[in-house]
Amino acid sequence: xxxxxxxxxxxxxxxxxxxxxxxxxxxxxxxxxxxxxxxxxxxxxxxxxxxxxxxxxxxxxxxxxxxxxxxxxxxxxxxxxxxxxxxxxxxxxxxxxxxxxxxxxxxxxxxxxxxxxxxxxxxxxxxxxxxxxxxxxxxxxxxxxxxxxxxxxxxxxxxxxxxxxxxxxxxxxxxxxxxxxxxxxxxxxxxxxxxxxxxxxxxxxxxxxxxxxxxxxxxxxxxxxxxxxxxxxxxxxxxxxxxxxxxxxxxxxxxxxxxxxxxxxxxxxxx
Length: 271
Hints:
Blueprint: H1 2-15, H2 18-21, H3 24-37, H4 50-60, H5 66-85, H6 93-151, H7 155-223, H8 226-244, H9 250-264
Keywords: CF(0), Hydrogen ion transport, Ion transport, Membrane, Mitochondrion, Mitochondrion inner membrane, Transport
Subcellular location: Mitochondrion; Mitochondrion inner membrane
Region (Disordered): 30-50
């Protein structure tokens, strides 16, 4: 299609009259003369060296050597010409849009790439610093934990000693409880025995009181009898005579002894 457009443009140029092209030539010559005579306003602006520009273009091409770059460039040009001539690819508005997009993306990649690269490197450095700090903190925490655990290396021996102490404490507590129970039983038995002793003493006191009361009552009853009083008086007189008048009244003592035997044979008893 491009070749058709080119042939159509060439045919239209041939069909134009010669007069239409003649006035353009003097105007072109005049403009060239004026441009050559007037000083250039852009002469003061530094222009880029063509060699440097060409080298930059060559460097942008893929390849390691000049031959490979030339081969790639010629191959790309040949393929483009072949595709255009055989109408495999048609130049239209989509091509313009694609070229514009490629140009925009190329500009973004060329000028925004270094900025993005620097930003990405700064972010990487920041994240790397955070990770390194976290790793250092974790390493320090692990070392501290290891040191703490090393301080507890004798925990087994301490646990064994504490177990022995606890076992001994349990034994002593059991013995103390046993002694406490024995003491409680002994105190209970003592209280029971004391209660029995008090009861027996109370019983004895009551018996003695009853016996004394009975004896006193019996004596009082005997004292109320005149015969008993006479016998007591006679016995008292006999005792006095036997004590004080025995050397003088030996014979009388014999008779009094007989009378004492008679008195002793009576049923009267003091107790």
